[in-house]
Amino acid sequence: MATDVNANNSGSAGSPPDPVVVGIDFGTLSGRAVVVRVRDGAELGTAERAYPHGVISDHLPGHGEPLEPETALQHPEDYRRVLSEAVPAALHAAGITPDRVIGVGVDFTSCTVLPTTADGTPLCEVPDLAGRPHAWPKLWRHHSAQPEADEINALAAERGEPWLGRYGGRISSEWQFAKALQVLRDDPEVYRRADRWIEGADWIVWRLCGHENRNVATAGYKGIHQDGAWPTKDFLSALDPRFADFVTEKLDHPLSQLGERAGGLTAEAAAWTGLLEDTPVAVGNIDAHVTAAAAQTTAPGRMLAIMGTSTCHVMNSEVLAEVPGMCGMALGGITPGMWGYEAGQSGVGDIFGWFVDTHVPPAYHQEAAERGVSVHDLLSAKAADAPVGAHGLVALDWHSGNRSVLVDHSLTGVLVGMTLATRPEEVYRALVEATAFGTRTIIEAFTTAGVPVHDLTIGGGMVRNPFVLQVYADVLNRPLRVVDTEHSCAVGAAIHAAVAAGAHPDVHAASAAMGRVRPDTVDPDPRRAAAYDALFKVYTELHDHFGRGGTDSLHRLRALRQDALTTDDATQGTR
User: How many domains does the chain have?
Assistant: First the structure.
């Protein structure tokens, strides 16, 4: 789509046309491109392409063998199709010629990581490795490396590794080292043939520029790179002697600062995108972190929650502190010169989608179709006016594990308080509330650790749902600023492209000029906010009981499920 193409694409009378930049956002299920005017951040054209292979979790393309539970892989060809289809479509929608584009920026889900050859070829595209799951890119929500994460955490705690506190005391199974150790343990041949182990954000920049480039953010948050160093060879060898040279052989590379120029488009990449060869490309970035520029939250204490399939909470601070259960911190991880903090929730929109797809009765789907609205909108409308607590429910938002503050992806979802009178919209509301309670838990952890959160801004796909935004405002009892775009990640990538191209002096200045936030906030209702305090107390009791050692029942249930799915007799009995 385009926005006032004739008005927005031109400069003033007699002046050259305004320069533009392209931001490309690689998400969980799709990728999108947006054409943005450098002068003021106006979005001139966008295009989105769904990944044909989606999330690969059942079996590899062309292979029938079932994948291990908690596997989440992707196909690199889906990423290339975003470059070759979404970028030209966005340019066409904007009515922009390639000579107007002064820079390209990209962001990526993280930690989405893949093994490649020395020239960047994904191992899954090497013919004799295509049938081996560990040769494929592992999506951020690939959680089957939890045993390896547990091992890393136990050894680091035992040895008093100084970097462990920078990750809230526990490394996630989503991060680079746990996933790589899993590859080594499960398929040593794939591990041996992986010359490079690289984040998707850096791999796509490699494809665009023709040479390897790695960014400081993914290294710091996902790669245990702190104070200029990786975990030592001695530590890695203690995990597994075969893992001793993981950093030096597969990971280590000079790190680039965010907003820097990584290089220029190769002839091949120019042909893919329809842009000019040598167009500047910004250093790759994480989808959540790049959005701080679009949300104008680069100043200290301004937390941004990017709410989509999952939620990532990022914030700059001048304070160096260790926040229990945070995902990580990195100097310059959001903007150069400040400490960037990250926390997150592994399931948010995914949880709402799971409920709609699997638990909402046909009558609701039919009613939504008759009204011409989505099932999500129907459930939101039915739930919005009910008094707080009237459903008698509290849920735990752990359907995809807990990223913060427990850092345990073996945990699973919980819903308590159901009766025979419980309605679908009430469960839906309880799930929305649970994710809001999870965000409140994260904010309180930061505050308690001495890292103040002055205000909260919401970005991502959930900005489209007023019901969700109001629940969050009430649960958190604070006004919410809302990013004024549905493509906040792609716009953030475009802002970094403008800096890399030299159109703005730094990310702060570019954010001020090109970021977009709605003029009005979503304000809490005092009565609902007070009522939510009582529900949050119950949530916290359940959170600590199931997540902090009151019972190991969720872990035992997961273990029983794993045994049932992997035991030959049990598997045979379900066919």
Answer: 2
Give the model confidence (pLDDT) of 334-363 as tens digits: 999 999 999 999 999 999 999 999 999 999
Q: How far is CA 422 from CA 45, 293, 404, 415, 539, in A?
A: 44, 42, 29, 12, 19
> Do 360 and 250 belong to one domain?
no
Residue 61 DSSP SS3: coil
- Domain shared by 92 and 24, yes or no: yes
**Which amino acid makes up residue 143?**
H
483 within 8 A of 517, measured Cβ to Cβ: yes
**Which of 239, 264, 285 is where one domain is finished?**
285
Q: How many CB atoms lie within 10 A of CB 33?
A: 31
Place of tokens 């490649």: 116
321 and 379: one domain? yes
Q: Where are the alpha helices (DSSP H) in 261-384?
A: 267-273, 287-294, 349-359, 362-371, 375-384
Give 126-163 pLDDT, tens digit per residue: 999 999 999 999 999 999 999 999 999 999 999 999 99
Query: In the sheet that 328-331 helps form, which strands lie side by side, from edge to edge?
Result: 328-331, 339-345, 311-317, 302-307, 455-459, 480-482
In a domain, 501, yes or no: no
Q: Report the distance separating Cα 188 and Cα 243, nearest Å.
A: 10
According to DSSP, residue 196 is labeled E
CA distances in angstroms from 338 to 166, 299, 380, listed in the order given: 15, 9, 39
Give the range of the structural domain holding residue 58, as residue numbers without chain letter: 5-285
What letter represents residue 426's amino acid? Answer: E
Tokens of 211: 């040479």
Q: Taking the model in full, what pTM does it have?
A: 0.89
512-522 pLDDT, tens digit each: 999 999 999 99
Neighbours of 264 (CB within 10 A): 18
| 254 and 350 housed in the same domain | no
Of 267, 297, 259, 207, the C-alpha closest to 26 is 207
The answer to whether 137 and 123 are in contact (CB under 8 A) is: no
Which SS3 state, helix, strand or coil, does residue 421 take? coil
Q: Alpha helices, DSSP H only, in 240-299?
A: 246, 267-273, 287-294
Least confident of 14-18, 150-154, 475-479: 14-18
Rg (CA), the chain: 23
Q: Cβ(424)–Cβ(363) under 8 Å?
A: no
What dihedral do alpha carbons 362, 363, 366, 372 form, nearest 10°?
-120
Q: CA 439, CA 45: separation in Å to the nearest integer?
A: 33
Greatest pairwise CA separation for the chain in angstroms: 78
Q: What are phi and psi of 261, to 5 degrees?
A: -85, 120
Q: Which two tokens stand for residue 441?
A: 């838990």
Residue with tokens 């052989």: 249
CA torsion sign, 332 to 498 to 47 to 369? positive
Burial class (CB in 10 A: 0-12, 13-18, 19+), 460: buried
Q: Does position 179 have pLDDT exceeding 90, yes or no? A: yes
CATH number of 394's domain:
3.30.420.40
304 in the same domain as 279: no
